């Protein structure tokens, strides 16, 4: 097939492509991370590019006519997922549509845990071999470990044998030995100057979170997060899964490579911040939802795409970091926390272990809201879990002016009840470009509280308000006027956006209600809201919208990144890995889609706050 050249501005980069190749595929291959919420289905309109010269693109499609409109088409804009290229051309990628990977420092917190890590270091002062004592170096080390520390290792990672003979002799038989699980020698190091660190990884659909912890004292030395670079393959799990199903093994490896590159970039940043070396990271615990877990460990996730949507593997395992191309110590292991079900991954199990002390006595509800909602209910003795298809609305997906929570996103909205004046807060304090999940929840809840929405979620047309207007057949509400926004266009909430928020909150509420009923009724003593979303939403607005079961507002507690916290606990106290395994077996998975009760509760919960309950 003949090749063509595409020049991409504002960088002026030239890339080669095959004639007839899809433009979004070309840009992804060139590591230009264009936003593509729908993964190329032609429904989100986020993958815009502007053609500067070259008229040899495929015909404008129906989707492009619908999502771009005449003005944008006339100015040369195309949806990259729908356009194919047939000859040399130049195009401009608007900066606001390129995925940025802002680094966010994670909150510092003290972690209360036993300090019994899987990797420990032992100082040995060995006697050198003689004619009368000609034992091998390793025999000498094993004997000393056993006699001095009671540690009986059964194997040595051969990689550490490359340097060990030199190190032992250079430091006059005074060395530090790192041992994994009291079974395997994974490093022979100089007796001083080297740290011993663990890395906790939380692979979220949208965010990659990491913590580096000192395994000698339990202190977190650095932590941060970035956007999961896989978003270039689609915002939600289903879109990414479909990509792998369509492309097969090649798609899995491509998705894995992008993920591991992102993780290595973040490791690089965190080790610099902590002023340590990658080779001092001697243990890793990774958690994630089932698809992210499978992709990270290069396990083909095809079984997740076919009913009954089971994972390929659930039990915990350990694998060398080098097998995964993870840039930490070559001999370090990565521990995989067990999974429960197709849509209840090791992140949920990890969250359970993170709150174990709170699960005594009265039942608690754990809600993790992301592109999917995972819920767990019960006590240490008995736990139920489920996954609810909340869709991407809470992350800004499926919302006409939705965007991720980044610079320029409206994150807070207030509507005065009397005057219907709108005030909003924007991330970074700049001109707004769109509205993110917390802003959308605020907006819908505030519209309801201001009397502009009825309980079924329909706009009340009769309420006089200049911001409420008709666009085509449907009503929409203007949050920000064009003169206030970055691109000069109004930012609105449409009737369809409100419907998508209702669908998401109803799925979450109904799921929680079913788990509570199956447990035997009553109500949770506390609701723990996990994830960064829980930290950023206005809990009162979310509560009045009907996202949570009825408990006192003070009993709804944002808990931060519980999954990452659970991974940290498993690094510091290796017995928690056994606890995770125990709870993965113990927690009972409830399949909501098969339940007629769920459908009943779901339809009731579409109302604001719910069909039966009202707070106002
Ligand atoms: Fe192109 Fe969504 S419309 S990726």
Your description of this structure?
The strands form 6 sheets. Strands 6-13-12-11-14-16-15 form a 7-stranded mixed sheet, with helices on both faces. It has a 6-stranded mixed sheet with strand order 27-26-17-18-19-28, sandwiched between helices. Helix 10 packs across helix 15. 29% of the residues lie in helices and 24% in strands. It contains 15 helices and 28 strands. The chain is α/β, with parallel strands linked by helices. It is globular and about 100 Å long. The chain starts with a strand and ends in an 11-residue tail after the last helix. The model has no long low-confidence stretch (mean pLDDT 90). A hairpin with a 5-residue loop joins strand 12 and strand 13 (220-227). The structure holds FE2/S2 (inorganic) cluster (FES). FE2/S2 (inorganic) cluster binds next to loops.
Write out the strand line-up for the largest beta sheet, numbering strands in chain order. Answer: 6-13-12-11-14-16-15
The overall strand count is 28
Bound molecules: FE2/S2 (inorganic) cluster
> Strand percentage, roughly?
15-25%
Average pLDDT confidence is 90
- How far is it from the N-terminal to the C-terminal residue, by CA? 66 Å
Specify the number of helices.
Answer: 15
Helix content: 25-40%
Biggest sheet character: 7 strands, mixed
Which regions have little confidence, pLDDT < 50, spanning 5+ residues? Answer: none
Rg: 27 Å
